[in-house]
Write a structure and sequence with these properties.
Elements (H helix, E strand, L loop, with lengths): L15 E6 L7 H14 L3 E5 L2 H7 L4 E3 L27 H14 L3 E6 L1 H23 L6 H5 L4 E6 L15 H22 L2 E6 L6 H10 L3 E3 L9 H14 L5 E6 L12 H12 L3 E5 L11 H20 L7 E6 L2 E6 H16 L3 H8 L1 H14 L13 E7 L6 H14 L3 E5 L2 H6 L3 E3 L18 E2 L7 H11 L3 E6 L1 H12 L11 E5 L15 H22 L2 E7 L6 H10 L3 E3 L7 H14 L6 E7 L8 H11 L5 E6 L11 H24 L1 E2 L2 E2 L7 E7 L2 E6 L7 E2 L4 E2 L8 H7 L21 H4 L1
Parallel strand pairs: 1-2, 1-4, 4-5, 5-10, 6-8, 6-9, 7-8, 12-13, 12-15, 12-16, 16-17, 17-24, 18-20, 18-21, 19-20
Antiparallel strand pairs: 2-3, 10-11, 13-14, 22-23, 24-25, 26-27
Length: 778
């Protein structure tokens, strides 16, 4: 293991950082601006706002302003960008860039953090390359001192991609994409209820002039009948294909059809496909009552989602670290997300690859375009294709395998999307799919029935668990479950659930010695709001719960802004796992979060009260404190509330709020629908592979460790891990993993709330290269 590296050695003294937002706005840009400002001030650098993007840099004067800690207070939950963004023709000319350089040098700014799309970042890189020449010219013209050329010899640039289209190669998600998906899904969910009433077809046009990500993922998240995207145009004769799919779905008693069209959708001859054209086609050919809804700028607006706030905060801090470590030799880099990992990539490599996608589309090399978009895009497309097209009975392979699906543990939003995906992929693979009601308890009582393709229609957007779920473990029902498995000839098992599902698989695995019926492939997909399952960084349902917490905190903060000098204590769920409290605090801009994983005592509580007392002397006269429900046996929510009330007398008053079961309810977020759909599809494909491997002499027999697995997200990949091997990683008493990745983000929350702390940056700092798909290079 390399020595841990902490950023304390990185000082920003004597450095000045300029932050600007450019190009189209995106939700979450403010969270990024806030993180850059606060991290910059934390490392003792000067930080400047550059208002109105490059236009402000060219115009100078009041557009470049030094900022303080309070300057970015209360902007975390605001959509758009508070420092403005403008298209700037002047910056495209050398003369304009000359003015910009002069204005930066006057403020001593040699570090730029640019938040924008690929055009904005390309402009920044050109500016960096010309920097020396620009300074020399300014010195010759007498606009700056000769000594300034040496003093401000090089310009450091770090980019963050803010774009709702997710059209930048090299990053899994750009800032704003998740929030735009929230807007789209809110509209689709609302439209579905009215379409259902009138048996209507709706054609929805979403943004994405050159990139189909929003259209594709929203189609996956709402189970749309058809989707049109620029990277994967429909084949010749798509009109017939689309109409036959719509009429087949209607014949299966589906009362509505949803068609999603990206604004840049094209056919295989690069001719545009418009939403009106699609509507006219449906009306003429099928005579269905059809309406068009163009979502437009609604997608750019509104408050950022929890995911975007955390992503932008992580990237903002990483951007400051990258600027502090920059040298004249360091290429301009972009801070990006790969899986669950923040990475730095050379800016121009990403820009080049983004431009290559467009070239591939222009040259009708559509499969290359899909590959260049990256792994995540390709997976989304393949999953959508599998789930949207029901093959005829004649086309389906026949395996004679029976696969059972059940939910175990507490309900989590996204479970139904996972079940739908599993059932449809299983049927496509040729298996008979069986749904078990009420978890292991229902299994023992024989609540098992075959489930068809049409039975799971419309499930993606439903919260809770339609199959029904119970916390009961299989241990006390082993004989009855084995009997039911014999009766229904169950050859494989998919369990979707939380910590109980993990314990259940361990019990079934241990019972194999006694019962041959359990010698079958079994796989678990983690689904719990607590996100406490070992072997996975994320669980289905946690994102929805996090958004609920964040929305509630936003409302509470607004109520506090009216009354002033008020501190709110908010209790979150999670059992002993502090994920929701910690990440909720990061997303809501809280002052403290008490969790079980990080022990705290009366001295820390006292320090927090003093910190809030100091805060009340500034212009930010409110406080927000989150507490995980089981963070401490004695320092209960009531105790903390009473302590704060007593100690804060005369300075602030206190209120408490227990969020409770609202965190488990509600419609699943786009992330949970998408994650549930993809992870469940992968799990069933693995079961298919295992069934083939374990089929001998007319029966399935699997008794090895690697035939009972948990499928989890680890850093950058979805991987299958034998549940027995995860035992060592588990704290069974407190039902949490022994090591949790998000604890590394805890100092981030403290830094952004103005606490001095130690931040491990061992994972940061390595500039990686963009991996290009092999085929697309040819």
């Amino acid at each position: 293991m390399p020595d841990k590296k902490f950023f304390e050695n990185l000082s920003g003294k004597g450095k000045a950082i300029g932050v600007l937002t450019s190009g189209g706005d995106a939700q979450g840009m403010n969270a990024a601006v806030r993180a850059v400002v606060r991290m910059g001030i934390y490392v003792e650098a000067k930080v400047y706002f550059i208002y109105e993007g490059y236009q402000g840099m060219v115009d100078g004067g009041d557009n470049i302003v030094e900022v303080t800690w309070e300057s970015v207070s209360s902007i975390l939950q605001v959509g758009g960008t508070v420092i403005g963004s403008a298209r700037c023709k002047a910056f495209r000319t050398r003369e304009g860039r000359l003015k910009a350089a002069c204005n930066l040098v006057k403020c001593g700014i040699t570090n730029l953090c640019v938040i924008g799309g690929d055009g904005s970042l390309t402009g920044a890189n050109l500016f960096r390359e010309e920097w020396n020449g620009l300074l020399e010219e300014l010195a010759q013209n007498g606009e700056i001192e000769k000594g300034a050329i040496k003093k401000y010899a090089y310009l450091n640039i770090v980019g963050m991609v803010g774009s709702i289209d997710n059209d930048f190669c090299g990053t899994d998600m750009t800032i704003g994409t998740d929030s735009a998906l929230h807007r789209i899904i809110e509209v689709v969910d609302a439209i579905m209820t009215t379409a259902q009433s009138h048996q209507r077809t709706f054609v929805l046009e979403v943004m994405g002039r050159h990139c189909g990500y929003l259209a594709l993922v929203s189609a996956l998240a709402c189970g749309a009948d058809y989707v049109f995207i620029p990277e994967y145009p429909p084949e010749e004769g798509w009109e017939d294909h689309m109409c036959s799919r719509l009429s087949e779905n209607r014949a299966r008693k589906k009362r509505l059809n949803i068609i999603i069209v990206a604004e840049g959708a094209i056919d295989c001859h690069n001719q545009p496909i418009t939403s009106e054209q699609v509507k006219d086609l449906v009306v003429q050919r099928l005579g269905y009552d059809t309406r068009v809804t163009i979502l437009g700028h609604v997608q750019r607006g509104g408050t950022p989602s929890a995911f975007d706030r955390i992503l932008a905060s992580r990237m903002g801090v990483e951007a400051v670290l990258a600027l502090l470590e920059g040298t004249p030799e360091t290429p301009a880099c972009v801070v990006s997300l790969s899986g669950n990992q923040a990475v730095r990539l050379p800016l121009m490599e990403c820009v080049q690859m983004t431009q290559d996608v467009q070239k591939a589309m222009d040259g009708k090399r559509f499969s290359d375009a899909v590959q260049l978009r990256g792994r995540s895009f390709e997976n989304n497309l393949n999953t959508y294709k599998l789930l949207s097209t029901k093959r005829t009975a004649a086309d389906l392979p026949k395996t004679n395998f029976n696969v059972a699906v059940l939910n175990v543990g507490a309900p989590a939003a996204g479970m139904n999307a996972a079940v739908r995906s599993a059932v449809r992929i299983g049927i496509t693979e040729g298996h008979k799919m069986f749904a078990v009601t009420d978890g292991f308890e229902g299994f023992s009582r024989g609540l098992i029935k075959e489930i068809s393709w049409g039975d799971v229609g419309g499930w993606t957007g439903q919260g809770g668990s339609i199959l029904g779920t119970k916390r009961a473990l299989p241990g006390k029902y082993l004989e009855k479950i084995a009997e039911q498995m014999r009766t229904h000839n169950i050859n494989a098992l998919l369990v979707i659930g939380g910590f109980e599902a993990y314990l259940g698989l361990l019990e079934l695995s241990a019972a194999r010695e006694k019962f041959d019926e359990f010698c079958i492939p079994m796989v678990m997909v983690p689904a719990t709001v607590s996100n406490n399952v070992p072997g996975s960084d994320f669980s289905i349902g946690a994102d929805t719960a996090l958004n609920t917490i964040t929305d509630t905190c936003d409302r509470i903060k607004l109520s506090a802004s009216g009354t002033k000098r008020r501190v709110f204590i908010i209790e979150t769920m999670g059992g002993y796992c502090g994920y929701l409290a910690n990440m909720g605090a990061l997303a809501a801009g809280a002052d403290a979060a008490y969790i079980f994983e990080e022990k705290f005592d009366i001295r820390e509580l006292q320090a927090n009260v003093e910190h809030l007392t100091e805060k009340m002397k500034t212009s930010i006269q409110r406080g927000l404190v989150l507490r995980n429900e089981n963070s401490s046996e004695n320092y209960t929510t009531d105790f903390i509330y009473q302590l704060y009330s007593e100690e804060g007398k005369g300075v602030f008053d206190c209120r408490k709020n227990v969020l409770g079961h609202m965190q488990q309810g509600g419609a699943p977020s786009p992330f949970d629908r998408n994650f549930g759909t993809k992870i469940s599809a992968k799990a069933v494909l693995w079961l298919s592979k295992k069934l083939k491997e374990c089929y001998r002499r007319g029966r399935v027999f699997a008794n090895t460790e690697d035939s009972v697995c948990l499928l989890g997200m680890r850093r950058r990949n979805l991987i299958f891990q034998p549940v027995v091997q995860l035992k060592d990683e588990t704290d069974f008493v407190h039902r949490i993993p022994r090591e949790q990745w998000w604890l590394k983000l805890r100092p981030l929350m403290k830094i952004l709330a103005k606490y001095k702390t130690s931040y491990d940056v061992s994972d940061s700092g390595q500039l990686e290269h963009v991996l290009r798909p092999k085929q697309a290079e040819a």
